[in-house]
Predict the 3D structure of the following.
Amino acid sequence: MDTSQKMFLLAVEEMNFTRAAKRAHVTQQCLSEHIKHLETELGTRLFERTPRLTITESGIALRKTLLRISNLEKNLALKIQEIEEGQIGEIHLGLNATRAHILLPNILPQFHRMYPKVNIIATLQDTEELVQLMLNQKLDVLLGVDYPPDPLLTHVPVGEEILILTATNQFLKKHYRGPGPWRDFRPGDFLDFRQFAALPLVGNRKKSTVQHLYTAFLHNQNIYAQQIVSISDYGTQFELCKKGLAATFSSSFMYHVIQECNRTFPGSAPLIPLRVLHADHQIQTHLFMPKRPFVPRYMQDFLRILSTEIKRYHNEIAEIFGYQ
């Protein structure tokens, strides 16, 4: 791509000429001249400048074309690098922080024995934010949770999860309003929310996949529950639950983090991960990649190792909770 085309992509990404120019280390006037040059060359307007900067249909079409060109150029560079230098490169991986904590210690030692000169760069965010980074060519692979297929991306299913609630028996007993006598729960039991007073919850600070799912579940069941603490870290959420402050929703993928929390604080009441009655939605997980005609061998092997570990872990959790 030429300089004007690169300036255009920066402007689309920022939707602000001043910020785009700053990223390109040029003046705003210089960037504007590059955009005008493209518009003159193509005979169309790429942006509407007033009342605020918006991209036109022609601009959208150009962006899609330039992203394809950029992918082809990147593929060529990777192919030449592999030919000239051997297995040297970078993999930009996207996933959330807790999944990284669970998966990466198991897969990276194996991968780096095979490819000691390939650098793994992990970005830890929620799926929706990671997909946007991938569409802007910032990621090579991401682990997406309950995200629909995108026509610009390749996706490979790697397993299913369920929504679970975690709390101590002491906390749940305090809020129990069921018809019969109290009975302690065991891991994997079903919990009926209708038998409890409004449960205080801890949850993620930002809207996440799990937060969207449990909010929809509570709404559909006409159940009220107040999120009294918002923090985007499952380790802290589970520790607060172990202190008896609240309960928390997560996916079943977090089972071993819950067990780790129980082992770390053995003197207090254990956390009990529970299935939720009528929360029947199965959470789909996929590996997403940009559509590229050339994938380096080290990337192929990384995807194979990552996919195998995720599927193994999903099978283990499905057996614990009794779902397939």
User: Anything to note?
Assistant: The CA atoms of residues 85 and 289 lie 24 Å apart. The domain at 89-324 is CATH 3.40.190.290 (D-Maltodextrin-Binding Protein; domain 2).
